[in-house]
Amino acid sequence: MATDSRRRIVEAAVRVLSSQGYAATSVKDIAAEAGVAPGLVHYYFATKEDLIVAAVEYACAELRPRVEGDPIEFARAGLEQAKRPEQPFWRLFTEMLALAPRNQAVRETLLRSIALDRGYMEQAIRAVMAQWEGWGQDEAPAVAAVAWAAMFGIWVQGELDPGFDRAAAIDAFAKLTMGERR
Amino acid sequence: MATDSRRRIVEAAVRVLSSQGYAATSVKDIAAEAGVAPGLVHYYFATKEDLIVAAVEYACAELRPRVEGDPIEFARAGLEQAKRPEQPFWRLFTEMLALAPRNQAVRETLLRSIALDRGYMEQAIRAVMAQWEGWGQDEAPAVAAVAWAAMFGIWVQGELDPGFDRAAAIDAFAKLTMGERR
Amino acid sequence: MATDSRRRIVEAAVRVLSSQGYAATSVKDIAAEAGVAPGLVHYYFATKEDLIVAAVEYACAELRPRVEGDPIEFARAGLEQAKRPEQPFWRLFTEMLALAPRNQAVRETLLRSIALDRGYMEQAIRAVMAQWEGWGQDEAPAVAAVAWAAMFGIWVQGELDPGFDRAAAIDAFAKLTMGERR
Amino acid sequence: MATDSRRRIVEAAVRVLSSQGYAATSVKDIAAEAGVAPGLVHYYFATKEDLIVAAVEYACAELRPRVEGDPIEFARAGLEQAKRPEQPFWRLFTEMLALAPRNQAVRETLLRSIALDRGYMEQAIRAVMAQWEGWGQDEAPAVAAVAWAAMFGIWVQGELDPGFDRAAAIDAFAKLTMGERR
DNA sequence: GATGAATGAGGATTCATTCAT
DNA sequence: GATGAATGAATCCTCATTCAT
Fold first, then answer.
1. Are 3 or more Cβ–Cβ pairs between D and A shorter than 8 Å?
2. C29-43: per-residue pLDDT in tens?
3. A2-178 adopts what CATH topology?
4. Which of A38, A53, A73, B109 would give a disulfide with A105, using CB separation of 3.0 to 4.6 Å?
């Protein structure tokens, strides 16, 4: 299958990058994981960097938690999901974060993914915010940025420290933002 | 001369790693930046990994913003500082984050640094919390974790997106946590 | 082409190791002698040690003087051959002898080669021994070991000393063992 | 002590070379074994090769089994001694054998040592030979060369094969040469 | 005499990339 | 499309040697 091999390579890249990290991943590793010859990787991708970019794009399109429906309901579901340890998307995101400063395509892809997430969050925040005193809708984007920041930062702490209590941190964040306020 | 070279190598490593990233940094690069022969790096550090660990430890000891005095005052100062774009410590922290899953020493060093920061934050939070209804002091660690998460997550967004408004996000976070509440 | 390169590398290794010795032989030297790029050596052999082992095995299989036919006739032919100075197999054998204590594969390969040689010699010795008084067939292995020892030891002396008279030593050994005895 | 250090270095070189082999021995290793700084080695010996030569000379002068007295008695004692597994001199001799083709000083030192040994053996052989029919005293040097060859070759086989029966081989050799003959 | 920091050439090995099949 | 042999530059690391102290 023509494009089948291409996809297998990209998916293999996501898996290998997630588990070994960029610095320790060779094109040969990815080819082996995909079950193809090393040469075929360069048939589809001119350089290793191109492959990495494709992998990040794939991950942002396929692995990122997707949601629909009522914003607040979505927000609550997202918070619950964030308490779970297995987050393949965040795994790769962290690996790619170190690449972003020197690779525009990676940077922009990550950025688009963040923007999308913040957009979802913003909707939920606007709904909650309506009941807050002293807050205007124009502050919603900034609060969404804080929300995204908290989610990522909590994930990082949990990743570094097996003893970290993600659930407590997320609950505290939820209480800070969604709790009553006057 | 003796230990002077060693320190110059470590400091050079911090600089080069911060700007080029781990994957693109060679021992030779670091030696050149330090102004010593490549062989000398391995005189002081058995492996590249050992040097990286030393660099992370150095950065966590020397580069991390240090603070003292009144917790709340410190907190306000920290928030202001976080608005500025140049954060050498966060730079290296992000690079090392991708190494942490596969390097225990790096992971533990980063973790210690986070724990220290959260400790400072917790003091400020306890002070503020006293005036909050419906919150107990036992929730302070979780809120401190959220605060650290927000600071790091905001920095990341600013790093990826030159147009990101760090100040707005930080102000929003401050308002969320330090604003009045009843 | 495929396996052809592999063999050329092994043969080149035998040549270079024989003439330069292990300590002075680099992988690059072997690649140059084989007429291939340095990287290709590691395509076929994971480590330099693996290549050396392959070279020793090749030498033991291809370079060692092979013989067939009447044992006594073979023995006489072998003795004559040992008088000649050019002995590519012994050359490599001596080089590898220094490696054997620290490399099991080398050690076992050399050992197998010695065992084979002693086996041939033993046949000749059994035939001669039949006419000896006071000797039993069960002593044949020990005498074969002595014969192998003498052949190697004589070669070594000739190798160290250009003035050494190998022929005289070999004739003396032949007289000791194959001369009449009563 | 001035020359004390020098000797400690040479003795350390003999030990390290014997156990690690030439290729795996660095000047630093030897300095460490001798308990001196690496720089001091080059105060006494211009190059590593010079040190190796000194080590071989020392070993040939100090480690080689020395003997005196009645030739035949000496020969018997030598044969008995050769049955024992621990032969520090042969150990180093084998290591140096691989160096000899490319190092004249090593070659000549080894050669002198062999010549000395053969000289001892020759005396014993002449004594025994007097009772042999069909042998002339002028054949004594060749027989001594065979004797040396057998001793070394037997040692080599025992070194390569833990299961090798050195005693049986040496007894067989003794019977071949010192047994009755008419 | 003695130290050990410093040098830099050279070693084994890895790996992105190319290309004939 | 697909293979995998082949390339060669670059990497980490070792080590004999030098030299200021």
1. no
2. 999 999 999 999 999
3. Tetracycline Repressor; domain 2 (1.10.357)
4. A53
